Amino acid sequence: MSEGLFFPVIETERLTLRPLATDDSESLLDIFSSPEVMKYWNTAPWSDIQDALDFIDVSNASMLREESLVLGIYLKSTRDLVGKCMLFSYDKESKRAEVGFGLGQRYWGKGYIHEAGVALIQYGFNALGLRRIEAEIDPDNHASAKALEKLGFTLEGLLRQRWEVNGVVSDSALYGRLVSDQSSNSLA
Asked: Residue ranges of the N-acetyltransferase domain (predicted)?
């Protein structure tokens, strides 16, 4: 596996964030084949192992090109993969990226998104030199909105009729966070 800014291993109290490997494919499929996990995504639930393998390949290729940072979220206690976190749509010149998270349903409500989010955001601001991190979510996804606000993001606007998935048209809520925001250096 490559090394450098786009292939970090980030440790938190309970988690390890690191690039995905081929042997993570079954765990990824288990997580992202769930209709509940994928409810607010702009793609359908994954249907077979090839979806997971393709995601890993595309993610690692994008990281090699320094276009995104896609990390698995692993429990330190068991080494189990419980989700993924990513900085994508990376624009080096504008010093911005978009953040995204996906977590297995049985791990919801345990603070893992907040813990991984704090580490990923700090990495984006400190190591990648980002000035701005954005998130785009379905306005009906109240859990993600709450998680983003807890991570110091501000609701900046609504993009009307932004997505259509399986014939369902939905809006997007746009959240943003700047390195200069007061909470940037005080996340806990």
From this structure: 15-175
CA–chain centroid gap for 31, Å, is 14
Question: d(Cα 6, Cα 42) in Å, to the nearest integer?
Answer: 25
pLDDT in tens, 99-119: 999 999 999 999 999 999 999
Dihedral angle sign, alpha carbons of residues 4, 12, 18, 142:
negative
- For residue 48, what are the contacts with CB-CB under 8 A and spacing of at least 6? 29
Helices (H) and strands (E) in the chain, counts: 4, 8
The runs of H, that is alpha helices, within the chain are 25-32, 49-64, 112-126, 142-150
For the chain, the structural domain boundaries read 10-182
Residue identified by tokens 């990376």 is: 90
Per CATH, the homologous superfamily of domain 10-182 is Gcn5-related N-acetyltransferase (GNAT) (3.40.630.30)
Reported as a single tens digit per residue, the pLDDT across 109-162 is: 999 999 999 999 999 999 999 999 999 999 989 999 999 999 999 999 999 998
3 state DSSP class of 75: strand
